[in-house]
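dude i think i finally got it to work??
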Amino acid sequence: MTQIKQNKIFNPKDIIAYFLVAGTGALIQLVSSSLIQDWFNISWSDSIVPSYIIGFFWGFTLTKLFAFDARRSNQTRREMVKFLMVSMVSLFITWAFTIGSSKFLIDYLGMEVYKVKFSFAKKEVNVTEMVCYVIGMGFSFVSNYILHKTFTFKSTGFYNRLKVLIR
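look at this
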């Protein structure tokens, strides 16, 4: 019975651990997106990819160590390759749902752009863009959890076949 419980995709312990790890990654993405916009004077939509890349490096380490109990797997290189593949899919999902939800909310529903000015930070935050970014990250969270649980941190034989193809 315990073997069946541990193999379930939606194991509550894994979901909670992954949620905490992914939440840290999401926070890193949001902060780095804001900083990238300010430092490099680029648009919100253009900051999605570089902030995702910054979050990627933190994400692999935290996910391996804490989310799926893979710290002693001795397959870090294999997991990195698979994590990169999943992350490329996830980047597209994050970008597509972030931009798509923004277009849907603003263009189709006519939602106004809400901005909040923080006097202590002298920073104006576009709440509408932040909500859309969180929507994109939410869809990415679901796909990442399933793919990492069933592919990245599980021995599937894919990595060995990939090595043969590369040689």
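The chain has one domain: 12-166.
im so relieved honestly
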